[in-house]
Design a protein that fits this description.
There is one protein chain. This protein is mainly alpha-helical. The protein has a domain at 101-250: Butyryl-CoA Dehydrogenase, subunit A, domain 3 (Up-down Bundle), CATH 1.20.140. The protein is 78% helix and 0% strand. It has helices at residues 9-19, 22-31, 33-44, 53-70, 79-97, 103-123, 129-136, 140-174, 178-199, 203-214, 219-226, 230-249. Helix 5 crosses helix 8 (140-174) and helix 8 (140-174) packs across helix 12. The longest helix is centred in the middle third of the chain and has 35 residues, at 140-174. It is elongated.
Length: 250
């Protein structure tokens, strides 16, 4: 069975909402399978030392199926937006369930996070890579490797919390009762705190966050904008998220 064409989707949704039949459900899942591949591809570089791209895609598929089952076309939320949150959430849940990271990496992530915070307080600005490496008593090359090493931990912790916030907004859109209002208030407050923290980052870090998280570019595409490699963008993103985590904590 091939994937449905875009113009067929409204009819498929109408049929599925009415009949809830297995065949239409499968057609819808196939039609949106590209969302899983895209999101898994965006995250793959962070987990390159742990999992294959196919592992992440497999982990995201239950999220897509759940999105198809629970989506209500009458609400003012695009399916692609709703499904993306479910897909990413499914991938994060799968990764977390495996207890895949050695405890030493958590400790190294905290060490870098503290170093960046201490230097920022001392210098009155965000430290550059040379200053951070010097503070940690390692070379710049070792510092860059360290940022890549701790990236999966940081990405899962920060992005999962963002995913939870977005999920709250989608629940609010689907629920007009008291719980929906509370979800919306919680999500709005979290978004305000995140926006305030991002505003304190250096301009280049803000650009990385904006292009990757808000514009939806891949790390490779962000690299083309900045004129750097994909792995360098991963390092910059890891460093930015470590700063954000500390700022939000404050």
């Amino acid at each position: 069975m091939g994937a449905a064409k875009t113009e067929q989707l409204p009819q498929l949704w109408s049929k599925f909402i009415k009949d809830r039949d297995q065949e239409t459900r499968e057609q819808l899942v196939l039609a949106y399978l590209h969302l899983v591949k895209y999101q898994a591809g965006r995250l793959a570089i962070y987990f390159k030392n742990y999992y294959e791209l196919e592992d992440l895609e497999s982990a995201g598929i239950p999220g897509l199926i759940s999105a198809v089952d629970k989506f209500n076309p009458e609400k003012k939320v695009k399916f692609e937006t709703y499904a993306t949150i479910r897909i990413r959430g499914a991938i994060y849940d799968w990764v977390r369930s495996l207890s895949w990271v050695p405890r030493t990496i958590y400790s190294e992530a905290r060490k870098v996070e503290e170093a960046l915070a201490q230097l920022e307080q001392k210098l009155g600005r965000a430290p550059d890579d040379f200053e951070a490496a010097d503070y940690l008593n390692i070379s710049v090359e070792e510092y860059h490797s360290l940022l890549e090493k701790v990236a999966p931990v940081v990405v899962v912790s920060i992005e999962a919390s963002q995913n939870d916030t977005a999920d709250c907004l989608n629940k609010a859109a689907a629920d007009s009762g008291v719980e929906g209002v509370l979800d919306e208030i919680e999500a709005v407050e979290t978004k305000k705190a995140l926006a305030a923290a991002i505003a304190q980052l250096p301009e280049r870090d803000q650009l990385v966050i904006s292009l990757y998280y808000y514009e939806g570019l891949t790390l490779k595409e962000v690299g083309k904008v900045l004129g750097v490699s994909e792995s360098r963008v991963a390092q910059l993103n890891s460093r930015s998220l470590l700063r954000l985590r500390k700022l939000i904590g404050r």
